[in-house]
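LAB NOTEBOOK - FOLDING QUEUE
OPERATOR: T.R.
BATCH SIZE: 2
PURPOSE: Compare the predicted structure-token outputs for two unrelated chains run back to back under identical settings.
PRIORITY: normal
REVIEWER: second-year student, initials M.K.

ITEM 1
FIELD SEQUENCE / FIELD STRUCTURE:
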Amino acid sequence: MGCLLHLAAWALVAAVPCPDRFGALQAHHLPAAPPRAALPWAPPLLALQERLTEEGKRKDRRNSCGLLKEIHALEKCAQRLAEAIDAAPVPLAGDREAEVREAAAELAAVCAAMRDGLEPLERQVREGFHRIVRSRMEGLDSPMLNGD
């Protein structure tokens, strides 16, 4: 259970922005690898771990916010909008205004996609957490453990 929780936390660090995300993806922070032969779920877990590590090493993702494609797209759209605003003289002319509006609409679309995509993920993470807490509580309340 500890190995799974460690991998889940490590994957969330890789996916979501944090100040030292790249440091968290280094080899010495990797979850301990379970023995491949002993546990039937070990090979998929190790494959996921390797995939996340490789994705974190990609040059275009090295200095980005996180590995979630939505966060990456949000960062790119925000940069594009900031560049369009900085390059535009005040008041906005016709072409510049259209460019700024297009960048703002693209950013709004990415934000909507992020909201729509992350709400189910948030719900699944919450349900998983509650399931883990319930199983731990059931284990602590078991008659075997209490000596009843």
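ITEM 2
FIELD SEQUENCE / FIELD STRUCTURE:
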Amino acid sequence: MFITLTADDLSSLSLSTKNEILKLAGAAKEEAPSALAGLGEAYKNIDMTGVADLSYRQVQTWMEAASEKTKLGLRIFAEHGPVVRAQALIDAGIDNTSHFQSRTTIRTRTVTGDKEAYLLGWDDWGQAEENQGRYAVTPLTHASLRQYFQLD
């Protein structure tokens, strides 16, 4: 059996699915598309390595144990994402973005069962103390968050 996938086909798949297909096809690791492949200009310079794609059902499970403050932060991604400035989180009441990032990572790893997964990608935090950095979720996670918060 032969299956033909175009670059557009591959870019529409989750990173884990792409990697599985490339592994089955015998592609060397260095030939795999980057985590940014197909994400678009909004994700420029954001490290999305290991960032999980969460389905709506996973977001529902994720939110069951989330604090109201964390939910408030994730609503910012749903409304204004998938890429948001750190300052938008602070303006929404997330006083400690490092703590927010840590809590989202722990919860994402619990929900996905992947000990290396992240919910958020981020760019160069050379100016982190000035809250100039950006956070991002994947397009699938963004859509799932929008559905969870009933924005679509």
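REVIEWER COMMENT (ITEM 2): The chain has two domains: 7-33, 56-148.
FOLLOW-UP: none requested
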